[in-house]
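Entry 14: structure prediction run for YdhG-like domain-containing protein. Input pasted below.
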Amino acid sequence: MDTFAAFIEPIENPKQRARVIKVLQWVMDTFPQLKPRLAWNQPMFTDHGTFIIGFSISKKHMAATPEEAGIAHFTKEIEAAGIDHTKGIIRMPWNQPINYEILQKMIAFNIQDKAQLDKFWR
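Run finished. Output tokens:
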């Protein structure tokens, strides 16, 4: 978690800070092959130097950013789960449970879909 200390430490709300830590730790535990990285002041995970998923926070939510392809592939599931999203992010409100199943699917999809890529972004 040291990689993300500069992102986590300024989070004033203890419940939000704990939630961010829990989600980032879950990614590290579930996908130990991914490399944690702090870039653009956001925690993200890469695989062989290519972006897999990133996270950000706002007053109302924590967001996951698996790139547009990662969201487009799961749009029906995201909408069926009632998750607010755009082309580029899914919003996880602070007062609602994290849908780890969809996160896991998006991360696994990106790992597989980007296995042969040698660029950071698609």
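Notes: The two ends are 27 Å apart (CA to CA). Will compare against the previous run tomorrow.
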